[in-house]
Design a protein that fits this description.
- It is a single chain.
- It is built from 11 helices and 12 strands.
- It is an alpha/beta fold.
- It has 3 domains: about 80 residues, Orthogonal Bundle (Arc Repressor Mutant, subunit A); about 90 residues, D-Maltodextrin-Binding Protein, domain 2, CATH 3.40.190.10; about 90 residues, D-Maltodextrin-Binding Protein, domain 2 (3-Layer(aba) Sandwich), CATH 3.40.190.10.
- The strands form 4 sheets. It has a 5-stranded mixed β-sheet. Strands 10-7-11 form a 3-stranded antiparallel β-sheet. A two-stranded antiparallel ribbon has the order 1-2.
- Helix 1 crosses helix 3 and helix 1 packs across helix 4.
- The radius of gyration is 22 Å and the shape is globular.
């Protein structure tokens, strides 16, 4: 029996260590929980040591596990940097470009731009990685990220596209005009769920005591938008998403506490790749994205 580890073994250990739990690692790898369980057990059997301690709160690397994970990171960085350099030699804007962004940005802002890009660059195939978590470009989960963030990772390069303005929105049927903060607290609200990585909104709602009025929660901005459109309650939404919807009205002005920059980001090794450069240049020069981000209340 060959007990030598291959790259897939190292990759599985790295996935579990970074995810912190078997179920999350399985989702990221596109595997089932039982399959991931068998895979990590097989790695441990090859080595004859336990790599992870199993707790109710997740998987924690043992001393041996930490050594394996450290080596796995080195291998991943070496292989990924090599792939980026090779990909950067591409001379034609053709091939696959993976773009990480959020559901609401793609739905309300980016999809029309990518339709125009497809007509201009038919050789490029786009793959959207939709998530409200920041994708790890260094591990090649995406070639480009279009993300709301106040502090982009220092190892990435990019351009700030603008500031996402946000406000309180309600369905027209609520008939809200000139209401006070106290009156707003008596109305039903939609808010971010605990699993939604949106610290600014969590803090703002708690500070203004709207959190106590929540009758519904969602883990995406598009989920909050759907709830407001259905008349469930009020929610904080980005202007680029809500202002174009004639069923909604904004209550008050911009909320500075939840304003956030929108960044177009990539890895330095990829920015000269023809297909990635074509997408970056198209998004950066868009005559639509900037004005849509700068929408004011009607």
């Amino acid at each position: 029996m060959n007990n030598a580890l291959d790259w897939n073994d190292y990759r599985i250990a790295l996935l579990v260590a970074d995810a912190g739990s078997l179920s999350r690692a399985a989702r990221q790898a596109g595997l089932s929980h039982p399959t991931m369980f068998r895979r990590i057990n097989a790695v441990e059997e090859k080595l004859g040591v336990r790599l992870f301690e199993r707790f109710r709160t997740g998987y924690q690397p043992t001393a041996a596990g930490e050594e394996i994970v450290a080596v796995a990171r080195q291998i991943a960085e070496l292989t990924n940097s090599t792939e980026r350099r090779v990909a950067g030699r591409d001379l034609r804007p053709s091939g696959l470009v993976r773009i990480a962004t959020t559901d609401s940005l793609l739905f309300a802002l980016l999809a029309p731009e990518f339709e125009r890009l497809r007509r201009m660059e038919p050789g490029i195939t786009l793959e959207f990685v939709i998530s409200n978590e920041v994708s790890n470009l260094s591990l090649r989960e995406a070639d480009i990220a279009i993300r709301p963030t106040s502090s982009p990772d220092q190892h990435l390069v990019g351009l700030k596209l603008g500031v996402i303005r946000q406000g309180i929105y309600a369905h027209k049927s609520f008939g809200l005009k000139g209401v006070s903060s106290q009156q707003l607290r008596s109305l039903p609200w939609l808010g971010p769920s605990s699993s939604m990585a949106y610290g600014q909104l969590h803090a703002w709602m708690k500070k203004n005591r709207y959190d106590d009025a929540c009758v519904c929660r969602a883990d995406t901005v598009l989920g909050l938008y759907a709830g407001v459109c259905s008349g469930i309650g009020l929610a904080v939404l980005p202007a680029y998403l809500a202002e174009a919807d004639g069923k909604l009205v904004r209550v008050g002005g911009d909320i500075e506490d939840v304003a956030v920059d929108l960044w177009l980001l990539t890895h330095p090794d990829l920015r000269r790749t023809a297909r990635v450069r074509a997408v970056l240049d198209h998004v950066a020069s868009s005559p639509v994205i900037g004005p849509r981000l700068d929408l004011q209340a009607r």
